[in-house]
Write a structure and sequence with these properties.
The protein has helices at 15-26, 46-50, 59-64, 78-85, 105-112, 143-154, 167-194, 199-220, 224-231, 237-247, 250-265, and strands spanning 8-11, 35-38, 54-56, 68-71, 95-98, 117-122, 132-138, 157-161. By secondary structure, the chain is an alpha/beta fold. Strand 2 (35-38), helix 2 and strand 3 (54-56) form a beta-alpha-beta unit. It contains 11 helices and 8 strands. An 8-stranded mixed beta sheet has the order 3-2-1-4-5-6-7-8, sandwiched between helices. The two termini are 32 Å apart. It is 50% helix and 14% strand. It folds into 2 domains: 8-162, Rossmann fold, CATH 3.40.50.720; 170-265, ProC C-terminal domain-like fold. The longest helix has 28 residues, at 167-194.
Length: 272
């Protein structure tokens, strides 16, 4: 189904769409001239034109001349975009990839046609530095196309395939989750200031400590409690701090926040 040149249209070239395009080029997945970026205000794409990307403020021709369609607009803009491109979609030619929060594959096929293969994707903002945790799901795409989407998003981080009914949960854990972990790092740095460090020192120390903790889990393929055990000694300062945080609701507040974000994510898209 996929031709060798992989002509790709990114509809809605904001932060996520643009980061993906850059990742595809940086990894030699495709060339800038193979990617058409669309945006209502072309002034925002002036730099990309100079870098060799095709740019347009019209979605229909961008879709017509491509085989991979990446939809990266806001949920409230989706219906208008789908109506605009519906006439250009050919189920035998096109693979549609949606990065729109709260929108199912069935929602998109309802506008574009039941035979269109759709893959739903949820990256996070770390896509900008090729460190995204991206979840993908489908209810009708071929294994070949799922492998294609996996390869695409592996150019900008890690990829996991999940059931589509878990995609709003993935939004909360991975996309909203970036903000949750950043807030935890900010709190740690503020604690560092309280115990004597300058703000810039405290932030640097908190950031590197958080990065090291995450890399320990990835490198060792271990459970957080296993690594925690290594740094907690009887009557020690670490366990005292951990227990105080738990008394103040650290874990429960994070869990509740993730659950509420998942609930909110499920209502972002309202059909006509």
């Amino acid at each position: 189904m996929m031709e060798k040149t992989k002509k790709t249209a990114v509809l809605g070239s904001g932060n996520i769409g643009m980061s993906l395009a850059k990742g595809l080029v940086k990894s030699d997945y495709c060339r800038p001239e193979d990617i058409t970026l669309t945006r209502r205000n072309l002034q925002h794409l002036a730099e990309q034109t100079q870098r060799g990307y095709q740019v347009s403020d019209k979605n229909y021709p961008a879709v017509f001349n491509s085989s991979v369609i990446i939809i990266a607009v806001l949920p409230q803009q989706l219906d208008q975009v789908l109506e605009e491109i519906a006439g250009a979609i050919d189920p035998e030619k096109h693979l549609v990839i949606s990065i729109v929060s709260g929108v199912s594959c069935a929602n998109i096929r309802a506008k574009l046609g039941n035979n269109v293969q759709v893959v739903r994707v949820m990256p996070n903002t770390a896509i900008a530095i090729c460190q995204s945790m991206t979840c993908i799901a489908t209810d009708n795409a071929s294994s070949e196309n799922m492998e294609e989407v996996t390869r695409m998003f592996e150019t900008v981080g890690s990829v996991i395939t999940i059931n589509e009914d878990l995609m709003t949960s993935a939004t909360a854990l991975c996309a909203c989750g970036v903000a949750f972990f950043l807030r935890a790092i900010r709190a740690a740095s503020q604690g560092g200031i309280e115990i004597g460090f300058h703000a810039d020192e405290a932030l640097r120390m908190a950031v590197q400590t958080a990065k090291g903790a995450a890399d320990l889990l990835l490198h060792n393929k271990s459970h957080p409690e296993h690594e925690i055990d290594k740094v907690t000694s009887p009557k020690g300062c670490t366990i005292a701090g951990l227990n105080e945080m738990e008394h103040q609701g650290f874990s429960s507040s994070l869990i509740k926040g993730i659950k509420l974000s998942a609930l909110k994510a499920g209502g972002l898209y309202t059909k006509e």
